[in-house]
Amino acid sequence: MARPTKIPSYVRDGVILGAAVGLFGITFGVLAVAAGLNVAQASAMSLLVFTGASQFAVVGVIGAGGSPVSAVASALLLASRNGIYGLALHGRLSGGVAKRLFAAQFIIDESTALALGQDDPKASRAAFWAAGLSVFVFWNLGTLLGAMGGTVLGDPETWGLDAAFPAGFIVLAAPHVRSSEGRVAALAGAVIGLAAVPLLPVGAPILVASLGALAGLGYRYWTRNQSGEVALDEGHPSDEDNP
Amino acid sequence: MSWGAILILAAGSYAFKALGLLAFDAKPPSPELLSTIRLLPPAVLGALIMVQTFATDDSLVLDARAVGLAAGAVAAWRKAPFIVVLVVAAAATALTRALL
Fold first, then answer.
1. What was the pLDDT predicted at A61?
2. Could you tell me if A42 lies within 8 Å of chain B, comparing CB atoms?
3. How far is B52 from B86, CA to CA, in rounded Å?
4. What angle do CA B72, A54, A44 make, to 5 degrees?
5. Contact assessment for residue A49 and residue B6, using Cβ atoms and an 8 Å cutoff
6. How confident is the model over B16-75, as pLDDT tens digits?
7. CA distance A78 to chain B (A)
């Protein structure tokens, strides 16, 4: 059967990713209620906080008997990486301040990774909204189901879903590691992130790993000097692509 | 957990997102800064891949997730569709967990 319009793969990928995240939303709902939150509070967190890792951190700390202050502090530490994502999305999300203030709520790991995977601005925006809205809908549905006692699926980790996300990020990282400096940044980020795991509180490793970008930058300057080019050259990397 | 704490967390989380997105409205970044910002995604994604696979809370662990990541990486390298990469990684992890 002929299809009149073809759904771009990045839109499909975003929706799929959202559905997978939704299964973890069920887990969040279950854990939130187990930690003493009521259904309305669990749902309010998924609607308003809407950044999964932070939410898991909160119920983890509260469930372990920690104070709300330490729960909120560790969650905010995790949430700060969304600020880095916001910087990285510079120029990708169009519109005035009001429109982008609305879009900001949907800045999360998945929407950022998919948006940055597309070079074309229009495709980048479509990928952002597909992933952002899909994750939002499924994450909130999952939270509600889990909080109301829906444990039909059991633990998503039984199904290996926890490993699906890093594997998915491999695909999403691919466009960023085509350049040598991108590969250096990725490698440095990976090493810094792993090294920081035993040293820093949960959430901080991803944040400090953003310093891996500086390793990529260092590599760029080093190769520029090696090739003997004049350092005053203000050229963009894309200039090299021109004949 | 009080409603106040939830609202503070919501406001703080949103502030990070919005401030990052609007940070360059006042003064657009220089081309050099912009190209450095473009190196943030690979750095963060590289860390996310490793930390989500090899960390449990604040310790480094080697478990079934590593098998799943390896299987998913092979699928990604063979240019499998996105959903296939996810399913292969999840299936390999689940299988390893069932066997161990």
1. 79
2. no
3. 14
4. 115
5. yes
6. 999 999 998 888 888 888 888 889 888 988 998 999 899 988 899 999 999 999 999 999
7. 9
Distance between CA atoms of residues B8 and A203, nearest Å? 18
- Give the residue extent of every domain in chain A: 9-165, 179-234
* Residue B46 neighbours by CB under 8 Å, 6+ apart: A173, A185, A186, A187, A188, A189, A190, A193, A209, A212
Distance from the Cα of residue B78 to its chain's centroid: 22
- Helix (H) or strand (E) segment spanning residue B59: strand B59-60
Q: Which among B22, B24, B50 has CB closest to A97?
A: B22
Q: What is the pLDDT of residue A154?
A: 64
Q: What is the pLDDT at residue A228?
A: 65
Asked if the Cβ–Cβ distance from B51 to A58 is below 8 Å, we say no
Mutate to test the interface with B, among A70, A162, A202, A221 (most CBs of B within 10 A): A162
pTM for the structure as a whole: 0.77
Longest dimension (CA), chain B: 56
Residues in contact with B93: Cβ distance below 8 Å, sequence separation at least 6, in sequence order: A160, A162, A163, A164, B64, B65, B67, B68
And the tokens for A232? 């005053």
User: Is B35 in Cβ contact with A169 (below 8 Å)?
Assistant: no
Residue with tokens 């109301």: A148
pLDDT under 70: residue ranges of chain A: 1-4, 150-154, 228-243
Write down the ipTM of this complex.
0.87
Residue partners of A140: CB distance under 8 A and separation at least 6? A25, A43, A46, A47
Cβ-Cβ contacts under 8 Å, A52 against chain B: none
Contact B44 A72 (CB under 8 A): no
Contact A104, B17 (CB under 8 A): yes
Reported as type and span, the H/E element at residue A179 is none
pLDDT of residue A236: 46
Verify whether the Cβ–Cβ distance A166 to B72 is below 8 Å.
yes
The pLDDT of residue A237 is 46
